[in-house]
Design brief:
Length: 103
């Protein structure tokens, strides 16, 4: 399934309806560190399919969602369980650290 791209129109529905832990990558196309962690997130999305849902949202296109979650630096990863934030990580983290966010 991989990583699905969210926007202001489907963000709340996808996060609140998720029956699994969710990691959302707040990113921008011009962001170097965002590009560095993208392959790690893609790999995790494949490896954790059925266990964790991975989404991404472009902060330039959906700045209101980024502002709602106080995203001031990118990449910012936000982990949700049951529609509620359980963890946040700012900056490019390792594969193990990213996975730890929802454990």
């Amino acid at each position: 399934m991989g990583i699905q791209v969210l926007n202001g129109g489907n963000f709340d529905e996808c996060i609140n309806a998720a029956d699994k832990p969710v990691i959302v990558d707040f990113y921008a196309d011009w962001c170097g560190p965002c590009k560095m962690i993208a392959p790690i997130l893609e790999q995790l999305a494949r490896e954790q399919e059925g266990e964790v849902l991975f989404y991404k949202i472009n902060v330039d296109e959906d700045s209101a969602i980024a502002a709602r979650y106080s995203v001031q630096s990118i990449p910012t990863l936000v982990a949700f369980k049951g529609g509620k934030i359980v963890n946040t990580m700012v900056g490019a983290g390792s594969k193990a650290k990213i996975l730890e966010m929802v454990k």
